[in-house]
Amino acid sequence: MELGPPQRRMSFRLVIRKVEPPYSDSLLDELDWICKSLGFYEEIDKDKTAAAVFRILVMASERGEALSSTAIADRVNMSRGAVINHLNNLVRSGLIEKHGRFYVARSSSVYRTIEELEDDIDRIFERMKQRARQIDAKFRQRIEQ
């Protein structure tokens, strides 16, 4: 299947939490820790389905596979509507991309996905710092008048 261009948003919402890393070397525990650090485990998501959706997409993307919402729903044993809600949140967070009716992880590896998010955040903060310098300069001008 050929994928169309990704639906990337100019803005995104990402939650970063300080979470104690796991004591085990289990792949699932490590990925769960990343998901917790990225705010996927909310009180309302008791079954950790958002993280399960992300995990399935990461594993599929590492194999070069894109998945439809129906295929993901089948794999996590959830309704397609519930999966679409999680997918929309993951797209909004910048962690996954939508190509037509298929979804993929933003990058082919978890590490690269985190690097890309870091780059996005760095660009946002650089813009904010530039504006902050301009604001400070305007404040100084008003004080000097």
UniProtKB/TrEMBL annotation:
<dbReference type="InterPro" id="IPR011991">
    <property type="entry name" value="ArsR-like_HTH"/>
</dbReference>
<dbReference type="InterPro" id="IPR036388">
    <property type="entry name" value="WH-like_DNA-bd_sf"/>
</dbReference>
<dbReference type="InterPro" id="IPR036390">
    <property type="entry name" value="WH_DNA-bd_sf"/>
</dbReference>
<protein>
    <submittedName>
        <fullName>Helix-turn-helix transcriptional regulator</fullName>
    </submittedName>
</protein>
<dbReference type="Pfam" id="PF12840">
    <property type="entry name" value="HTH_20"/>
</dbReference>
